[in-house]
Design a protein that fits this description.
5 helices, mainly alpha, 171 residues
Length: 171
Amino acid sequence: MSSRLLAIILGIALAVSVGINLFAATAAVTALSGQKQIERALQERRTDQSRPSTRELLASLDPEVRRAVRRGLRDAGLAARPDFQAARQARAEAVEAAKAEPFDRARVEALLTESRAAEARGRARLEADALALMETLEPEDRRVVAALLAGRGRGVDRRDREPRQERVAEP
């Protein structure tokens, strides 16, 4: 093999090696910067959605006010519960109807509409009762309770939970 041919082969091998290394380095930098962007976006989403629990929010209230607020919120939740149960039931029926043969779009659509309406009734009832409760509070207490209007995060599923019994002693 001539030295000229060997130099050409080694040159080609060097060029291929440099190309592969550049590609690998670029891929690594892109992956790392993309990971950092994803982590930043997730952190922003977490901080946007984080709200203290109802218990944490109410902890700063005077014990007597806290008991009255908890009782009012519990009563509001119990009053709205049938609407939310009807919404879940209609949605479950819509899912089952969507699986059935033949597919009846009108029935599924009607059940989904019924579910949304029941959920809206439940939310409206909860919000109206919360506002009525807030009317009875002092401005400082109302500011604390107003944070509840931001809503609850989606991470907690309380659908099948039985209503809590009233506690005899409160902290």
